[in-house]
Here is the input.
Amino acid sequence: MTEYLTDEWGFFIRSSRQYERFRSPYQAIEVHETEPFGKLFRLDGHFMTSEQDEFFYHENLVHLPGITHPAPERALIVGGGDGGSAEELLKYPSMKKVTLAEIDMAVVDVSRKYLASVHKGSLDDPRLDLRIGDGFAYVRETSDTFDLIVLDLTDPGGPSLELYTPAFYRACASRLTMLGAMALHIASPIAHPDRIRQTLVSLRSAFSIVTPYLTSVPLYGGLWMMACCSATLDPRKLSAPEIDRRIAQRGITDLQYYNGEMHRAALAMPNFVRALVS
Here is the structure.
């Protein structure tokens, strides 16, 4: 299997067994067994998540804004049908409800069948409110507000294309509480610099505080960028000891990547990235 980061650059992972390969009404879905990553999930030919490295992505996407928030109680995930983001959000003892707006029920079904080590039962947690349908429509139509919004999306294209627009970001901003924050991935600073520039322009049109940060996602080819967006919440204001204190105080366990020092490290930018996001 090959993952193309650009038309000229990609990498491969060998499949030792194909469990699923079919087309839903929205996208092509595959599940494979691999030696380095265990079960690996693909959509439209792109690697989405795997058993062995999902924590690189989901922990960073959720906990940098989640720990910065004083006590998140209600969260919305748009996309995220594999349940990995839901599993991280449900670790918060203050969390009362997580709404998951996923357009494709087939993603949820496949994840329930093959990716238990990713969602860890979160797709059937009583605090999870599963909404199958268009995420933009849900955000426009709901009257609910959220402490955290997590955009756990495929790359721009197909059903997710409208979820990378200023109009959608403004709609999400209107559904956040005063201390709320939205997190999303915004691509590779090496492979997709133009996409990152444009996404940050769009985000800054909707949020007064936009904080880009970096992590490594092996399944996505290495260095990857995310962003935390808010009217008031700034993850740069927390020290590493304060983050570790909050993790311990909230009783959040089973973290394989995220801690106070990694939070601070994610906010550190090489010079070429500083130029990109300025």
